[in-house]
């Protein structure tokens, strides 16, 4: 698909395509043409031109999302291109903006917004090298520290110290870049580039380090908080976090696995859960909540009923919900507002089929994403599922891998999915009849790939043919056996793997010591 370009944009491309000429001529370029030239340079991956445009930026703000998004001159959105050449040039250009004393433009820049960059699986940039959220966090922190060292050592123009630019960014901190980010945050007051964290994700951090760094961030600006892999945050720590820090603008909260475990609850724990619910109710902007792999049986109402704002996204996958939990969700004021819902890991047809249908009917007018992985949905339940999905006319994404469905049932389901006008992405299971007879569900990781691959390919072709014949080639259908693409995990998987091996080794050593003592 070719996107139309205006004559202005074509001219801008021609101008920046000769990097040497463009860089020499920037001094004569009108201020209002800088955004146009920036997008053209980004499209053509002209790193040197990008650097010089940012170094001499003549405007009050620099918003990556707006600059790279759809414009009248060029409709294509480039904000999902996390091209390493472009982004590194952009950030080093920002550092040199502060240092450049001979720029012909008066320094007006006050706000740089890097939050509009989207990390996606497929990249179209020529260099084929991406700079993900973790690497952007790393580079910006490094540049801030280097900038401060340089300013302290060099003879700079006094005006340089008066420059103050708020840099809005989604930080991603792990053990590996922790020290660098901490140093940049500690020196924020002295540095002309001031890191303003709008979204914060932490993986592979000790609790001590997590609490230290979260206190360095200005929580009044934070909109999204993700505490994900290998941060051993439990309920008492969450209560401590909410008691010590106020999050007035928080819209999205992701908690790590096993934050809650009601199976070992005491009276004190019940009170703690009540306190957490009340603290969350003070977060009046909160609309997205993810609590997967916690054990929350019978406690959903206690946690969610105090909330004053309806949730638009709820992930309670593998949370051992019972009928009372599902009944609360179906009848709560959240149900009519849920745009994204994940109930994976629950035996929906066996435990609460009618309550689930009620929940689905309540959110059908707004639901955009539904995930029902490993929910024991079998051939006999397909008609019920079709009935529930048919009113969901805004549904864009449906994921249901890990369910024991035959190829015949999948074809029946796909025929009805073609009727959903907004649908764009379907993740379907390997058909049950592709696995050896007697395979039990949920399938363990070791057996996941032991299916007839040729038969699966034939079935996948037939399913795509159903989409093709219904003129629904816009729908992407796939079977990601080990889960959907996660940009953050993809970027840090080496560190994540090393952490898991280290944890396994420590557990093994403890077991060996205990065993030897017993012997």
Automatic annotation (TrEMBL):
Keywords: Leucine-rich repeat, Repeat. SUPFAM superfamilies: RNI-like. It comes from the Eukaryota. One of its GO terms (cellular component) is cytoplasm. The keyword Repeat applies. Belongs to the PRAME family. LRRC14 subfamily. This is Leucine-rich repeat-containing protein 14B.
């Amino acid at each position: 698909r070719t996107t139309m370009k205006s004559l202005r944009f074509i001219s801008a491309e021609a101008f920046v395509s000769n990097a040497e000429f463009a860089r020499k001529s920037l001094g004569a370029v009108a201020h209002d043409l800088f955004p146009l030239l920036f997008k053209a340079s980004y499209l053509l991956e002209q790193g040197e031109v990008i650097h010089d445009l940012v170094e001499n930026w003549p405007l009050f703000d620099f918003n990556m999302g707006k600059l790279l998004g759809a414009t009248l001159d060029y409709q294509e959105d480039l904000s999902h291109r996390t091209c390493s050449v472009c982004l590194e040039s952009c950030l080093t250009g920002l550092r040199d903006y502060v240092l450049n004393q001979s720029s012909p433009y008066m320094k007006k820049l006050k706000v740089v917004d890097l939050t509009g960059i989207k990390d996606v699986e497929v990249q179209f940039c020529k260099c084929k090298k991406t700079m993900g959220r973790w690497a952007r966090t790393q580079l910006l922190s490094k540049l801030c520290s280097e900038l401060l060292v340089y300013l302290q050592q060099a003879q700079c123009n006094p005006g340089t110290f008066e420059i103050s630019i708020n840099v809005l960014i989604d930080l991603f901190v792990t053990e590996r870049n922790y020290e660098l980010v901490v140093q940049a945050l500690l020196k924020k007051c002295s540095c002309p580039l001031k890191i303003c964290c709008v979204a914060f994700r932490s993986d592979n951090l000790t609790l001590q380090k997590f609490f230290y760094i979260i206190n360095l961030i200005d929580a009044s600006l934070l909109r999204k908080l993700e505490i994900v892999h290998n941060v051993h945050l439990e309920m008492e720590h969450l209560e401590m976090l909410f008691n010590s820090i106020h999050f007035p603008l928080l819209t999205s909260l992701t908690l790590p696995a096993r934050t809650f475990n009601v199976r070992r609850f005491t009276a004190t724990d019940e009170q703690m859960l009540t306190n957490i619910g009340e603290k969350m109710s003070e977060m009046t902007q909160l609309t997205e909540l993810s609590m997967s792999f916690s054990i929350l049986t019978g406690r959903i109402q206690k946690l969610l009923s105090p909330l004053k704002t309806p949730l638009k996204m709820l992930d309670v996958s593998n949370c051992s919900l019972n009928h009372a939990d599902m009944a609360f969700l179906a009848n709560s004021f959240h149900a009519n507002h849920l745009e994204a819902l994940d109930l994976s890991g629950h035996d929906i047809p066996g435990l609460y089929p009618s309550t689930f249908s009620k929940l689905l009917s309540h959110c059908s007018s707004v639901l955009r994403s539904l995930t029902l992985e490993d929910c024991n949905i079998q051939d006999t339940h397909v008609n019920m599922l079709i009935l529930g999905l048919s009113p969901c006319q805004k549904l864009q994404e449906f994921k249901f891998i890990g369910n024991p469905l035959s190829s015949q049932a999948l074809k029946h389901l796909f025929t009805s999915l073609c009727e959903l006008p907004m649908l764009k992405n379907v993740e379907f299971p390997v058909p049950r009849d592709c696995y050896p007879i007697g395979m039990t569900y949920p399938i363990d990781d070791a057996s996941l790939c032991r299916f007839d691959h040729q038969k699966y390919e034939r079935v996948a072709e037939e399913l795509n043919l159903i989409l093709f014949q219904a003129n629904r080639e816009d729908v992407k259908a796939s079977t990601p056996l080990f889960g959907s693409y996660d940009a953050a995990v993809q970027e840090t998987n080496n560190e994540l793997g090393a952490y898991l091996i280290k944890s396994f080794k420590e557990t093994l050593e403890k077991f060996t010591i205990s065993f030897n003592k017993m012997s």
